[in-house]
Amino acid sequence: MRLRLRLRAVRRPAPVIALALAACAVLAGCGVAPSSTSPPTGSTAAPTTAPTTAPTTTAPPVPTSTTAPGGPCVPPLDQWPAARLAAQLVMVIGTFTSIGALAPEASAGAGGFVFLGQPPATQTAALRTGLAQLGAAATAGGQVVPWLSTDTEGGTVSRLAEVLGPVPSARQMAAMWSTVQVQRQMEARGVALRGLGITMDLAPVLDTASATDPVADERQRSFSATPSVAAAYGIAYAAGLRAAGVVPVGKHFPGLGHASANTDTGPATDPPLAELRAADLVPFGRAVAAGLPVVMVGHPVVPGLSGGLPASLAPATYRLLRTTLHFAGVAMTDSLSAGAIADAGYSQAQGAVAAVQAGADMPMVTAAAWQPVIAALLQALGDGSLPLPQVRASVERVLAAKGITTCG
């Protein structure tokens, strides 16, 4: 999801926004093994000091209803009803100011949530309580704990800048710090995220873009135009998050650093696949080899690959990811509310089915589209256009990335 926020040096806190949430003592989270709506674009000057070190926080355990000797487990997937399988595939977009409104989706077994907005520091305690309750809503309903995620790339895309402090953009990190320093800084950031209850960061950006790229602030969001540099820094970023127990998400496969436009607002075209292989695909390949657990697939049309469709809806995209890059983790789509998807003639529900049929594991949709998306997935499962074994394989990959196995 390509989410951008302009950071300001001084900002008065907004009034505290009340969250209609019942008290809950459980802090949701998922440990991990080595593993974009569109606010205004812009860039920030490189800070003169490193971000404030995050407070020491112990990451909470994974709450589950069943525990096997090797860790948390769930019933075998052939015992899951179709509705539970479908729900576990969906990433739901919400906001930090309406966390409680997502409780029904959590209780129904949504696989994860993406939170947008820029909450003020005064809302920190409410955020922690709200996120804890959302995880508890899932476990109370006997469901797998969802991923609780946001975008904290740094720079213009830093959802929790006022709560946790700002972070330099990817391009600034590469100019200021070594890869070792980036890893350390992101581990500290990850500890702070876990302290709030956030278990996934939709970062790092693995795109390659020139320092003058005008589209979607890629000139700041990408680490470098040089594939090897973008790869090294992206891997360090991801390793820091993983060390703190936060799931990193590499994006936006197969690359948006050379896209013709912003896919959030309309259609965009990438260079031909032959050109992507020499540059844009390199950071993804190296990050996958280093153990990246989740890849976000973007929506550009790629000549020679996607057959005129957005990449996220094209089977060849996922074959490239699985077969050529040997990626065995979770393939998540960018937001299916994007203009590029609508321009291609798909609603979010139609896009979700098409993406999963093509090979995606987790379509990302808005909360308003949740019911139509689940209904469309169940219809496709019912009529056989979405094979049940394929859905089970996707759910298995999601559970594995969450550190959850099947019992028995």
Description:
- This protein has a single domain, classed as Glycoside hydrolase, family 3, N-terminal domain (TIM Barrel), CATH 3.20.20.
- The protein has 15 helices and 13 strands.
- The protein has helices at residues 82-88, 103-107, 124-140, 161-164, 170-176, 179-196, 218-221, 227-243, 273-278, 281-289, 315-324, 339-343, 348-358, 370-383, 388-401, and strands spanning 67-68, 71-74, 91-95, 112-116, 147-150, 152-154, 157-158, 200-201, 247-253, 294-297, 330-335, 362-366, 405-406.
- It has an eight-stranded parallel barrel, surrounded by five helices.
- Strand 3 (91-95), helix 2 (103-107) and strand 4 form a beta-alpha-beta unit.
- Helix 6 runs parallel beside helix 8 (227-243).
- Residues 2-70 have low confidence and may be disordered.
